[in-house]
Design goal:
Length: about 375
């Protein structure tokens, strides 16, 4: 198909130059992201709200009303671990050697469906992030930047290491799991504010692929060159959208995990939680983070990309961002309204895939009603 993509920077124009005259191409996923923060535009069209509520009148996101007559069934849940003994077994499984050997996870060629291939858009909705309830001796050691921090945040980064500290180094982490084929793999994920204080948002292919949910699923927030300063959190439930569950429709490549408490404390109590936002305007300043583990990266550090997102004109309803992150960054967060001085923002998409003819462009799904329903389902799921 002959298309033209008008982008807002020379970097993006160069990255997407091959998009015209391309039809069917393979995709390579990205399972680890690191985003840098900048003075960003405020979250548009959606003010802060309490988790589980939404501003203005209308039906809650967990309801089928407002999703359109053609809406499919709601999010799909899968039991990852049913008992404390299972969770202990998963924790023992993930030795440092297995984590370091886990391969960056890749996505398959996107599958376009008829009838439900476009996210439905409803009322803008958002909820603010939350800081961690830190113990007296916080276990996480990070490099911090004081008064000169804003000068170090790059507004148009295509893949820099994040060194400015803040909430993002605690809430973003690596995801590890075992696939149905028996291999160990890695993605990225984000702790978000939620009613149960136990939700990790990631990509759909990071919880289920090839018709099967992954096993031995854990989240390691603040992963730092093999160290796990905030612990290893075992998933009790995995969730994804109905569209990804049924046919792996790339437009709905969104997943979530509900993790069990660790030593009597919830994930958000320990790591904090980023805000989330749905049904927001497209083509806005965006910061993406993750832990890319495929060359030239090695999964040891948090990387970020930043710039104005743009619409995919090739195949999907996704948005794109100039970004060099590689496999392992999949599931890493895209933030709107990201504040570099605090490391907090509103999660508004996740790293999903790359076209193989545009290796410097990351794609992420639009967070519409379906993604919002997934989040609502996750935050109301019992963590045990």
């Amino acid at each position: 198909m002959h298309r033209r993509v008008a982008l807002l920077s020379a970097v993006t124009r160069r990255a997407l130059a091959p998009l015209s005259a391309v039809t069917h191409r393979r995709l390579a996923a990205l399972s680890a992201v690191t985003l840098a923060a900048t003075a960003v535009t405020a979250l548009a069209a959606a003010g802060p709200a309490q988790a589980g509520s939404r501003p203005g009148s209308g039906t809650g996101a967990g309801s089928s009303a407002g999703f359109g007559a053609a809406a499919e069934p709601g999010p799909v849940r899968w039991s990852a671990t049913d008992s404390s003994s299972e969770r202990t077994s998963v924790l023992r499984y993930w030795t440092s050697q297995r984590m370091l050997a886990a391969r960056p996870y890749d996505t398959p060629t996107p599958r376009r469906a008829t009838g439900f291939d476009q996210p439905t858009q409803g009322t803008p909705w958002a909820t603010r992030g939350a800081s961690a309830a830190l113990p007296q001796r916080a276990p996480l050691r990070v490099t911090t930047v004081a008064a000169h921090r804003p000068a170090e945040v790059v507004a148009n980064s295509t893949g820099l290491r994040w060194v400015d500290g803040g909430g993002v180094v605690r809430t973003v982490g690596r995801v590890f799991f075992t696939t149905a084929g028996g291999g160990n793999a890695s993605c990225s994920g984000t702790a978000v504010t939620s009613a149960n204080k136990s939700v990790v948002m990631t990509a759909g292919h990071c919880v289920k692929m090839g018709g099967a949910f992954h096993r031995n699923w854990v989240f390691v927030p603040g992963f730092d060159n093999g160290r796990r300063p905030l612990g290893t959190w075992v998933a009790t439930r995995l969730l994804t959208t109905a569209q990804w569950n049924a046919r792996e429709d790339i437009n709905f490549d969104v997943g979530a995990a509900v993790v069990a408490p660790l030593q009597g404390r919830t994930l958000v109590d320990v790591a904090g939680g980023q805000g989330v936002a749905f049904n927001q305007p497209r083509q806005r300043q965006t910061f993406a983070f993750g832990y890319p583990a495929a060359a030239p990266f090695d999964g040891s550090a948090l990387i970020y990309c930043s710039g104005r997102s743009f619409n995919d004109t090739v195949m999907t309803q996704d948005q794109g961002l100039a970004c060099r992150m590689t496999g392992g960054s999949s599931g890493g967060p895209w933030f709107r309204g990201f504040d570099g001085s605090t490391g907090l923002g509103w999660l508004n998409s996740v790293n999903s895939f790359k076209y193989n003819f545009a290796p410097n462009v990351m794609m992420g799904p639009f967070f519409g009603n379906e993604a919002q329903a997934l989040y609502q389902a996750a935050q109301t799921t019992n963590a045990l």
